[in-house]
Sequence to fold (381 residues):
Amino acid sequence: MNTTTATLWVGKNSLEQVEAPLPEPPDEGLLLEVEANGICGSDLHFVSREPAAPLVLGHEIVGRIVAFGAGHPRTDAGDAPLGEGDTVALFPWVPCHRCWSCRRFGPGAATCEKAFVYGVPLDEIGLAAPRRASGDSVELTGGFGRHVAVRAGTYLWKVPPHLPAAVASLLDPLAVAVRGVDMTRTATGTWDEVLTPDSTAVVLGAGAVGLLTGLVLRAQGVGTVIVTGSRSARLAAARDIGMDLVIDRDEVGESARRDAVLDLTGGRGADLVIDATNSPAALGEALAMVRRLGTVVELGNIVPDGSTVAVDPARDICQRNVRLLGMSFNPPRSYSEAMALLGRHHDIPFERLITGSYTLDHVAEALRDISSDGVKVVLTA
Ligand SMILES: [Zn+2]
Ligand SMILES: [Zn+2]
Fold:
């Protein structure tokens, strides 16, 4: 029998290398051999908890098609033909097509209440986890393993041959950045428009999503992009990718950070603030540095940590007509846009954000790297 290996999350801060039988490709699905899997901040968060059931984590998956299951359409989400040996990146959400959200908004809205998500503990992100009997064999559903069994109905994008697999694994966090910026767009000429060549945007957080957001803002022609963050390697990366002002949170206190933004904007405040930290307090900071009729996007606080933030709705939102948008899902369309941007990797410095790379059997080391100074850490075959 053919076997494969995977790193299983078995307990609080506890990972285990396991061997598992290599399954047949699922009907209308396929079997992938993982080439690269990005480590996400949320992986770090998950591992620090007790799993409801042992799980192979990893949702930023790029792999080579080993075999198709019967009935797979053999095309990707953009209708490009797929063959064995092709490299694809996958959209981690598989919608059910049946729940109220799927019927109301369509399966592509990624708001499915019963979605399956690759490499993510469903209970941690507010989805109902299917019950599993103990003693079940390891399910190959995450990129922390050498193979992934790809289910029917999974959106795939063919990776262009000139794009390295590690860079392609930025697709998922880049889609978050693309969607976060995209949702601020308005019909031309309305008061709320903030994506303009003379606007100033602040990105709170210099992790991978924050810096990818900076690159997307730049690609959208936003005039001035300010990034605040900590940790020297992340701040150096922010400078290297051409952010206009990089503020070290450890050196510059909250009121001085706000003053720096006001100084650069004639005392008005930033047109757009995007929170890509993982800290509830950052929402208060975002509201304090945005201008009247400005936009704040909250996309960093995806997993609740139990703490809350004080907001004065009158002063912080209402009186200044602030538009506050929340984002946790990115539809397949954002992945298509993100893949198009990755295709421009010779012009946009995505590679600079990959600060660490480990083989698939060194997940613990990769997690340690991302929890210290790394920007984006990638597992590779
Ligand atoms: Zn992620
Ligand atoms: Zn659904």
About this structure: The chain has a mean pLDDT of 93. The domain at 3-172+330-380 is CATH 3.90.180.10 (Quinone Oxidoreductase; Chain A, domain 1). The CA atoms of residues 355 and 376 lie 6 Å apart.
